[in-house]
Design goal:
single chain; 264 residues; alpha/beta; Arc Repressor Mutant, subunit A; Rossmann fold; seven-stranded parallel β-sheet; DeoR/GlpR family DNA-binding transcription regulator; transcription regulation; DNA binding; DNA-binding; DNA-binding transcription factor activity
């Protein structure tokens, strides 16, 4: 296990439990006490955890892993979801993408797609996004036209937030909005951890003719702090495992199509 993988796992443990001891981390990772101490010191220096005498605690109750530490979580599922989402996009379409690891995989899949390559002078696909990392990655793809909203970037997610996001988006009409979420439930619909990101995602959905939620199975049946939109605003859910009967019934009642992405 590399240091980056260890740091990812330590942050996951802190996120899940709120507080962990050095012994618990050592047992979970199979590493020495000295290694755990070094890793915790590294994370504390980066202000990602609060160091305690016997371990570490989360910075607050609304603890959110930074994007760079989420990339390894549910990786296979996210790649499968990205392929399925890309299959919903047609050449010449405009696609709105919010930030996150799943939508970043969707962006990569759109960027690699031979099917979506340009025909003549028109772009193969137009991506409208508030995510700086997505815009950066796709900027080298000749068949992709990138439009970036204004806004103020969040360190945790590389997403632009604030009133400039909506001001830019209201000038566009998008074929499909693809939104990554932190939770999807019958009671609260699509949710995320941060109210600014929720507002930005809501603005993307507002100018789209179709709203697609891209969420792995760990996000289903749970809700987080800030609502993006109710189920009634969602057209398609793309996920990696069959949905529970209860949630499936609620989705059907809101006319949400469910697509379960096959894993290769």
């Amino acid at each position: 296990m590399t240091q980056q993988q260890r740091l990812n796992r330590v942050l996951e443990l802190v996120s899940e439990r709120g507080s962990v001891s050095i012994a618990e981390i050592g047992d979970a990772l199979g590493v020495s006490t000295a290694t755990v101490r070094r890793d915790l010191n590294t994370l504390a220096e980066q202000r990602l955890v609060t160091r305690t005498h016997g371990g570490a605690t989360a910075l607050g109750s609304g603890y959110e892993l930074p994007l760079q530490y989420k990339t390894a979580r549910q990786a296979e599922a996210k790649v499968a979801i990205a392929r399925a989402v890309a299959g919903l996009v047609q050449p010449g379409d405009s696609v709105g993408l919010n930030g996150g690891t799943t939508t970043s995989e969707v962006a990569r899949e759109l960027g690699r797609s031979e099917r979506l390559r340009s025909r003549g002078d028109a772009p193969g696909v137009t991506i409208v996004t508030n995510a700086l990392n997505i815009a950066y990655e796709l900027s080298v793809r000749e068949h992709v036209k990138i439009v970036v909203t204004g806004g103020v970037p969040r360190r945790q997610s590389y997403e632009l937030v604030g009133p400039l996001v909506g001001a830019a988006l209201r000038e566009f009409s998008i074929d499909t909005a693809v939104l990554g979420v932190d939770g999807l439930s019958a009671g609260f619909g699509a949710t995320t951890m941060h109210e600014g990101e929720a507002e930005a995602s809501r603005e993307i959905a507002a100018v789209a003719r179709r709203v697609v939620i891209a969420a792995d199975a760990t996000k289903l049946g749970r809700s987080t702090f800030a609502r993006i939109c109710p189920l009634s605003r969602i057209d398609v859910l793309v996920t990696d495992q069959p949905v529970s009967a209860e949630l499936a019934a609620e989705l059907a009642g809101s006319s949400v199509e469910i697509v379960v992405a096959p894993r290769s």
